[in-house]
Amino acid sequence: MMKRLLFICVVALISAVLFGCTAARNSADPNANNSEDSTGSTEENNSEEGATITYWYWADNSEYSQLMQDIIKEFNETNDKGITVVGEEYPWDGGGYSETLFTAAIGGGGPDVASFKLTSTPLFTANDLLLNLDDYIANWDKKDDIDSNIYDIMKQASGTDSIYLMPWNTQVLYVYYRPSIFEEAGVEVPTTYEELLTAIEKTTMDTNGDGKTDVYGFGMRGATGGQEPWGSFIHARGGSFDDLTSEASIQGMKDFIDIYSNGYAPPTASTDGFNEIIANFKSGRTAMTIHHTGSSAEMVDTFGDDVSAFPFPAGEGQWTSMGDTENVIFESSQHKDAAFEWVAYLAAEKGQEDWTVATGNVPVSKSVQELDFFQDNEFMKASIEGMPFAGIVPIKDTTTEWISTIWPNTVAAALLGDKSAEEAMKILQEELHAE
Fold first, then answer.
1. Signal sequence: where (predicted)?
2. Cα 221 to chain centroid, rounded
3. Distances (CA, A) of 233 to 196, 308, 418
């Protein structure tokens, strides 16, 4: 049981690294928690006509809170089955939302549907709390509107061949770059991994001839959270998180070390976190760095047209990190069909469009991705192009400690020459996959 509870910590950490959220509770109906009809859990009802379901969610700010209430209102007024969704907002609270949700569900008082993070999946499925969505999705007329890789990630999160999460919206990492620096260095946008390594080397420049590097090719993140962009280098050589000691994985680590040891990344890279890599890029100290659309507005504010993005290019393999917010239906819901109508509306219907356009998250619906709003945005396009090969760090009992301590300490030692690539990867493999 203690191991299962560790997954709550995983949620808090992984989400805080790239996708931290805060919000105040703002229930659509302050009396909803006291209504026996609101959960559909106190009375068996095989008919979904006129069903009322509760939906728990969090919002990053007051605008998103109102947005969700507007989406709920529109669904309630337009669905042809008379289904009523009662939305109840809870604060993210650094991942405490997931603990609140688990406590309520395990006690029999949870909602019908809830917004959810992939990292929580093993804890909830181990306690048989989530509805298996395989049959629902197989019979859904918009199943193919979502990339098959997204469904694979949902399965990976549960550690099974089944889907327990309905895709909703994502954040996909890509490579930011400065077109003016690329032009000065005489390089094109990389389309292969080898071209990326070359571009990193060539965009490391002494621009004023004083013998000192003014621009570093790559803004490397060596502190917590850096395991995600680092994973792209490992996979590009054909390696994976499953076997970090393979020859391919070790070669990817050697590439990463070489970028630092050759002076293609800032000297502080071994301890640089999110704030540092963004500040270095915005100041012109680095030509490239890796993040997602969450920082694109400030990049445009800083550089105007002199900033763009491309998906992390393929080598022997290809991978980029995906952050997420999904939805789940609880096994305890007495209105499962109605609940699926709601999560489908958020996944591939008007609710998907309304939410992703307003929040700037990357839609999972292919038809929504094709809207001009997304296709005319180069950062969204880079995210969408990365979706078919996006993935997540394995969700294990060891993941929290591995991300927060093992990975940054081990990689720092390797970058500084205190450990070889082979030694570092052996430690990372053993600690991540420890039983």
1. 1-23
2. 17
3. 10, 20, 21
Let me know whether 257 and 404 are in one domain: yes
- How far apart are the C-alpha atoms of 48 and 335, rounded to whole Å? 6
Looking at residue 162, what DSSP letter applies?
S
What is the DSSP-derived secondary structure letter of residue 314?
B
7-37 pLDDT, tens digit per residue, is 444 444 444 433 333 333 333 333 333 333 3
The verdict on residue 316 lying in a domain is no
Q: How far lies 308's CA from each of 218, 272, 387, 406, in Å?
A: 15, 22, 18, 33
CA dist 114 and 106 (Å) reads: 14
257 and 341 share one domain:
no
Contacts of 135 (CB under 8 A, 6+ apart): none
Instruction: Please state the domain count of the chain.
Output: 2
Residues 135 and 230 in one domain: no
Cα gap 150→324, rounded to integer Å: 10
Dig out the tokens for 259 from the structure: 């970028």
> Which residue spans within 49-101 are E strands per DSSP?
52-57, 84-89
pLDDT tens-digit readout, 150-161: 999 999 999 999
Instruction: Report the candidate in 152, 102, 98, 109 with the shortest Cα–Cα distance to residue 128.
Output: 102
The rounded distance, in Å, linking the Cα atoms of 258 and 120 is: 36
Q: Go through the chain and tell me how many residues it has.
A: 435
Q: Is residue 334 part of a domain?
A: yes
- Tell whether 143 and 15 lie within a shared domain: yes
- Taking residues 342-371, report their average pLDDT: 96
Domain that holds residue 195: 174-311+396-432
- Whether residue 378 is contained in a domain is answered as yes
Beta strands 308-310 and 113-116: pairing type?
unpaired
Global confidence as pTM? 0.87
Residue with tokens 């805060």: 22
Percent of the chain with pLDDT over 70: 89
